[in-house]
Amino acid sequence: MSQDLVPLSPQATLIANALRVLSANDVGSYTRPSPSLYPHQWNWDSAFVAIGLARDRVERAQLEIRSLLRGQWRNGMVPHIVYDSGGAGYFPDAARWEVSLSPDSPNDVSTSGITQPPMITVAVHAIARDPQTHSFVRWAFPHLLQYHRWLHRERDPEGEGLVFICHPWESGLDNSPRWLDIMSRMMLTVRPSYEREDNRQVALGQRPTDEDYDRFVYLLDLAREARYDSSEIWARSPFLVQDVLFNSILYRADECLKEMAVQLGEPIAEMERWMALSRRAFRDKLWDSKAELYRDYDLRSGRPILENTISIFMPLYAGVAGERETESLVERHLRNPAEYAADNRTQWLVPTASKDNHHFDPVAYWRGPVWVNTNWFLIRGLERYHYWQEAEKIRRDTLALVERTGFFEYFDPGTGAGYGTGSFSWSAALTLDLQAH
Ligand code: 9WN
Q: Model pTM greater than 0.85?
C-alpha cells in the first residue's frame, strides 16, 4: 500500500481540517475570523489564530501579529478591527469610526477606535517558545509594552489595578447578559441611523437584537464624538465597566510581558507593580464573598453587575484566584448542574451563561452557547490550579464538538448544533492548540 493511501487518524483529520479552515480564511498577511461575516482583521481573533499557528506554523503566526500591529495607534492602542481597504462588507465600516479625528490614529491604515482583550501579548509569548523567534520577540516587545502602558494609564485613571472598557465590543463577549442592565438604562431619544449587515447572514435569534445594536452604535458614535480620548469617554460614557474577563486577560498578558522582559534583559518593575495592584483589586473589589464568584463592576452606577456568566471563572486563567475562591468556583458553580455542569438541558460543556440566569438562551450569541475560546480559557485556568480532570473533560467536549459539528462560531450546549458562522478561525486555531496538549 502506498503511503498516501494510509487513512488518517481522527486526530490527524481534525488537525488537517482545522488547518484547511485557517488557510481558506488566510488573505495573505492575516486571517479573517470567517469567510464572509467578518471580512477584516480582528484583534483578539488574530491572537487566537497566532496561538494555534505557533504550534507548528510559527513563521505564519509571526506574520499575523506583524499585520495586526500595523494598526497600532501612536498612543499604543491596538484597535479591535484593522480594516481591509475601506471596510466593505461589514457594519460598521471604517468611515463610521472616522478615526482621523484623533491625533493618535495611524495615517495609512483604517481601523476602529476601540480595543479588545490584549490576547496579542499571550500570542507573542506562545510564539516566543520557539528560540528561532528571538528577533521577532525583540521587535514586538516595545509595541506590546506601549499597548500595556496605554491600557494601564488611559483605562485605569484612578490607578486601581483594574482597567475599564467603554463598549461591549471591547469585551469580546458583546452580547453578554452582563451588559443588559446598563443598556436598558440608555434611553436613546433618536435612533442612530445605520444598516446592519450581520443579520443578512445569520438568523436574528442567534445575533444581538436591533435594540442592542442601536446601543452599540450609540456608544460608537459617542466615542467618535469624544475623538477617542479616554478621559473624555470617562467623563461622558454611560458604559464604563471593569470587566472580569478583560482584566483577567490583561493580568495574564502582563505576566507574559514580564516573562518576555526577563528573556530580553528588560526591566520588570513596572509589570510587577501593575500585577500587584490588580491582584489586590480582584480580591477586594471583584470577588463577591456571598455569592462566591467574581463580578464585573459598573463604574457609572457604582455597583457590581449581578449576572452569573462564564466570566466568573476567568480569574482562574489569570491565576489571581486564591485557594478558597478557586474551590468555591469549582464546587459551587462549575460542578453545579443548575449552573454550568451537564444535565438534561445542557450536555455539552461549558455554557457561556449560567442556566439559572434568566437571560440564559442556548441559541443566542454569548447568552448560553458554548464557544471554543471561553472553553479554552477555562481549560488553561483549571490546569493552572491542577484541576486536571475538569480541564480534561472540557477539552474532550470541545474537541468532540468541533469534530462532529465542524468549526462553528458557537454551539448549542443542549444539542451540539453549530450556530453563527461556519469555518470560524478561532474555533479551528484553538483546536490546534488543544490538540497539542
Ligand atoms: C464585533 C470577530 C468578532 C469577535 C467578537 C465577537 C464578534 C463583532 C460582531 O465577532 O464581534 O466586534 O460583529 O459581532 O463577539 O468576540 O472578535 O470574530
A: yes
Is any ligand 1 atom within 6 A of the Cβ of residue 170?
no
Cβ atoms of 386 and 8 within 8 Å: the answer is: no
At 3 the pLDDT is 56
pLDDT of residue 342: 98
Closest Cα to atom 8 of ligand 1: 169
Q: Which of 207, 295, 187 is nearest to 248 (CA)?
A: 295
Q: Which of 154, 409, 412, 433 is catalytic?
A: 409
Average of per-residue pLDDT across 46-62: 97
Active site residue 412: no
pLDDT value, residue 1 = 46
For residue 144, CA distances in Å to 72, 139, 147, 151, 247 come to 10, 10, 5, 11, 16
Distance, CA of 143 to CA of 133 (rounded, Å): 16
The 10s digit of each residue's pLDDT in 420-436 is 999 999 999 999 999 99
- For residue 323, indicate whether it is catalytic: no
Mean pLDDT, rounded, for 294-299: 98
Ligand 1 proximity of 174 Cβ (cutoff 6 Å): yes
Q: Which of 38, 83, 430 to mutate to test the pocket of ligand 1 (most atoms within 8 A of CB)?
A: 38
Whether omega before 27 lies within 30 degrees of 0, making that bond cis, reads no
Q: Hunting for cell 477606535 — which residue is that? A: 113
Of the candidates 130, 174, 197, 403, the residue annotated as catalytic is 174
- Tell me the CA–centroid distance for residue 9 and ligand 1, in Å: 33
Q: Is the CB of 213 under 6 A from ligand 1?
A: no
Ligand 1 atom 16: residue of nearest CA:
172
Q: What percentage of the chain exceeds 70 in pLDDT?
A: 99
Residues 49 and 22: beta-carbon distance below 8 Å: yes
* Cα 419 to ligand 1 centre (Å): 14
